[in-house]
Amino acid sequence: MPTDRAEQFAAARTLMVMIDEMIDGALLVDKDVRIVWSNDKHVWFNDKLMAQLGFQSPADAIGQPVERVIPHSRMREVVETGRSMPLDIMRYGEHTLLVSRLPLRDEQGEVIGALAFALKHSLTYLRPIADRFNKLQSRLNRVEQELAASRASKYTVENLIGFSPAMLEVKRLVRRAGQIRSAVLLLGETGTGKELVAQSIHAGSDRAHRPFVGVNTAAIPENLLEAEFFGVAPGAYTGAGRQPRPGKFQLADGGTLFLDEIGDMPLPLQAKLLRALQEREVEPLGSNKVVKVDVRIVAATSRPLAEMVRSGAFRPDLYYRLNVFPIQLPALRDRRDDLEILASLFSERVALSLDQPMRDLTPPALDRLRRHDWPGNVRELANVVEQVYVRTEGDRITAEDFADILPGAAPDAHLGRSNPSIAVADGKRPLAVAMDDLERSLILEALAGCRGNKLEAARSLGLSRTNLYAKLRKHGIPVQPDD
Ligand SMILES: Nc1ncnc2c1ncn2[C@@H]1O[C@H](COP(=O)(O)OP(=O)(O)OP(=O)(O)O)[C@@H](O)[C@H]1O
């Protein structure tokens, strides 16, 4: 061991020369993580990169926060935690660098900065790992791009079919909603096209190139909702994983967040949602740091939200925040003029998907459709048309084809078959009770017909899966945990 200062100095200089030969860049930051020194090899500071970052010369980087020059730098973590990162692979411009980062401490052991070395040309012996890393990185980039594309909305206002006055008004409001930034509240029965409208609003807005992220409050168990909305910090709970999990707010950053079935949101979460909307920031589960988010909210519900506010089931402050630009979607029975065009559209789609010739609707068939009440709205219509294709044959759709398909086709026979007690609509029971019984019985029948498969049962009833679950809960029909 050298004993006097001159020898120590010589040893340190030799070491520095050796290190300098091995490395392609060295960088020193102070305790505020600002750059204080770099060696003259300038792996970080080549003129091209400097110009791209808006610096005149490498010297301008001195005094800058490190991320200003090296966007993916992890020096801040080293300074904040005092932990070294002896080996890390980092992309910088077109280079893949092997980086070592060490905290610098004063004599009292306090962290006063950090030192980083980058090895580039000495990577030869690590080439297989670096190549693999590069391959994985480009695969990840591709997957991320595909994911972003799949998050983009699929529908525009052109996909909203219908020329009835009610539908024309909806289209006008959808176009208007695309031009403003306020929250939109979509109100309407199940299957009236709320999701389609939400996507169309996004597609017509200046956020169209950013993600459209939908979250269905009713479909997520209550204890998972918060994590789903706001994300999870690493190690927030046992099994939470070491990577942070972004919530829907973060995924929708810069784009549109579609909050479907908002009326099903539990009250405690309503308070958190309101705070996120007001502060424009979220706090992931298990973290004490807030994350800024910029999302445009489109909420939807088939529940009577204003009534729920009156009964205390929905927070009034959240309701006013969401109800800035309400759009009421008309039920199909209130726009029967649209039946013809919608039915032919679905006929065309089903024919295409089944690889069969398209069947036109005869005037009596259309008449039959007009007389039906369409509780499941457009979704129910689509389902009825599909059933006709699957259950009947012929080159046209006739009124008779609906005999076994439309529930109202032969009400007495139908009720008598499924549950004789319901057929006793004898006027002694209130209509609402009789209707409830009928609904329960039809659901049980559909479930039995599909051997308990909820998705199939929902489709045969012309309901969304979410809606079927809500109805199962309402009627106390048990839902298996693995459903
Ligand atoms: N105006 C329309 N033009 C074309 N298709 C429509 C229209 N309205 C609804 N649909 C179709 O009906 C189905 C149901 O629509 P959507 O899921 O948007 O309804 P929803 O109101 O969100 O239903 P829920 O409340 O049950 O989730 C979808 O297949 C959708 O494409």
Automatic annotation (TrEMBL):
<dbReference type="Pfam" id="PF25601">
    <property type="entry name" value="AAA_lid_14"/>
</dbReference>
<dbReference type="GO" id="GO:0043565">
    <property type="term" value="F:sequence-specific DNA binding"/>
</dbReference>
<keyword id="KW-0238">DNA-binding</keyword>
<dbReference type="Pfam" id="PF00158">
    <property type="entry name" value="Sigma54_activat"/>
</dbReference>
<keyword id="KW-0010">Activator</keyword>
<dbReference type="InterPro" id="IPR003593">
    <property type="entry name" value="AAA+_ATPase"/>
</dbReference>
<dbReference type="InterPro" id="IPR009057">
    <property type="entry name" value="Homeodomain-like_sf"/>
</dbReference>
<dbReference type="GO" id="GO:0006355">
    <property type="term" value="P:regulation of DNA-templated transcription"/>
</dbReference>
<keyword id="KW-0067">ATP-binding</keyword>
<feature type="domain" description="Sigma-54 factor interaction">
    <location>
        <begin position="160"/>
        <end position="390"/>
    </location>
</feature>
<dbReference type="InterPro" id="IPR002197">
    <property type="entry name" value="HTH_Fis"/>
</dbReference>
<dbReference type="Pfam" id="PF08448">
    <property type="entry name" value="PAS_4"/>
</dbReference>
<dbReference type="InterPro" id="IPR002078">
    <property type="entry name" value="Sigma_54_int"/>
</dbReference>
<dbReference type="GO" id="GO:0005524">
    <property type="term" value="F:ATP binding"/>
</dbReference>
<dbReference type="InterPro" id="IPR035965">
    <property type="entry name" value="PAS-like_dom_sf"/>
</dbReference>
<dbReference type="InterPro" id="IPR027417">
    <property type="entry name" value="P-loop_NTPase"/>
</dbReference>
<dbReference type="InterPro" id="IPR025943">
    <property type="entry name" value="Sigma_54_int_dom_ATP-bd_2"/>
</dbReference>
<dbReference type="InterPro" id="IPR013656">
    <property type="entry name" value="PAS_4"/>
</dbReference>
<protein>
    <submittedName>
        <fullName>Fis family transcriptional regulator</fullName>
    </submittedName>
</protein>
<keyword id="KW-0804">Transcription</keyword>
<dbReference type="InterPro" id="IPR058031">
    <property type="entry name" value="AAA_lid_NorR"/>
</dbReference>
<keyword id="KW-0547">Nucleotide-binding</keyword>
<dbReference type="InterPro" id="IPR025662">
    <property type="entry name" value="Sigma_54_int_dom_ATP-bd_1"/>
</dbReference>
<keyword id="KW-0902">Two-component regulatory system</keyword>
<dbReference type="Pfam" id="PF02954">
    <property type="entry name" value="HTH_8"/>
</dbReference>
<dbReference type="GO" id="GO:0000160">
    <property type="term" value="P:phosphorelay signal transduction system"/>
</dbReference>
<dbReference type="InterPro" id="IPR025944">
    <property type="entry name" value="Sigma_54_int_dom_CS"/>
</dbReference>
<keyword id="KW-0805">Transcription regulation</keyword>
